[in-house]
Amino acid sequence: MFLDALIRWSLRNRLAVLASAAAFLAWGGYVAVRMPVDVLPDLTAPTVTVLVEGHGMAPTDMEALVTFPVEAALNGAAGVRRVRSSTAVGIAVIWVDFDWSADVRLARQTVSERLARVAATLPDDIAAPMMAPLSSIMGEIMFVALQSPAHTSLELRTTAETLVRRRVLATPGVAQVTVIGGERRQFEVLVRPERLAAYGVPLSAVEVALERGSRNTSAGFRRAGGQEYLIQGAGRAHDAESIGATVIATRDTRPIRVRDIADVRVGESLKRGEGSRNGQPAVI
C-alpha cells in the first residue's frame, strides 16, 4: 500500500521528484570529487605496539611476570578498545587498540605514561618496555636481500645493521627497518679453568672485570694555559685484543689480564630465524 501511494504521489508531483533527484545528483558529485582516494587505504584502527624483552626467559615465565602485568596496566587507559598480546621465548609483544576517533599521538602518550608506572614492577633482568615506531599494516613497502659469495653471512649481517639500516632510516618517511637472517657478531671469552686455578682468580672476578672494564669514564676538566681540557678514560673495547688486555687482578705488582686466563675471539650469536632469497640464505 505504501509503495503504491508513493508511486501515485511521484506521478502527480513530477517536477518535485526531478528537482530532488537533480539536487541529490549534484550533491553526490560534489562529495565524490572531494572524497580522498587511495589505492591502498589505511584500514588500521589507532594501535600502539609495545615490545618487552627478557633475554632467555621461558614463555610461561615471560607471560606471568611480564605480559600479564603490562596488559593489566594498559587495560584501564582512556580510550582503549582492546589489548592483545603474543609471548615467545624472551619477548612479549602487546598491541593496544584504541577507538577509531582517537588521536594516535595522544594514545602513544597515554601508553607511555602507563608503561612508566609498570616498569618498576617488572623483574630486574627485564628490559624496559618500549613502543614500536608509528606505522600501520600497510607500512611494509620493500624487501631488500643481501647476498655475496665473497662475504660470510656474519659480514653481511654486520653491514646490514651498521650501514644499510642506518642510511635507510635516514630517509624521510621511513619509520622502521628490520634485519632478518645471518649471524650477529659477538665477542666470546672462553675461560680456561686450569688457568683460573693457576692464577687463583675466581670466575666472578672475570665477569666483573669484563662488565666494568669495557666503558669510557670522564674525570672532569683541567685548566692549563688559559684553555680547558677534557679528561677522559677511553676503555670501551672495540676488538678482541682490547678485551684480552682488560685487567682482572694484580699479583705481586703484576697485572693478570683476560688473555692470561681465557681465549678471546670474534664469534656468532645463537641464530634464531633465517632469511632467504630464491631458496638461498640471505640477509633481508
How would you portray this structure in words?
It is a single chain. This protein has about 280 residues and is an alpha+beta fold. Among the domains are: about 45-130, Multidrug efflux transporter AcrB pore domain (Alpha-Beta Plaits); about 185-270, Multidrug efflux transporter AcrB TolC docking domain, DN and DC subdomains (2-Layer Sandwich), CATH 3.30.2090.10. The protein has nine helices and twelve strands. Strands 2-3-1-4 form a four-stranded antiparallel beta sheet, covered by helices on one side. A hairpin with a 2-residue loop joins strand 6 (about 215-225) and strand 7 (about 225-235). The longest helix is centred in the first third of the chain and has 21 residues, at about 15-35. It starts with a helix and ends with a strand. The model has no long low-confidence stretch (mean pLDDT about 85).
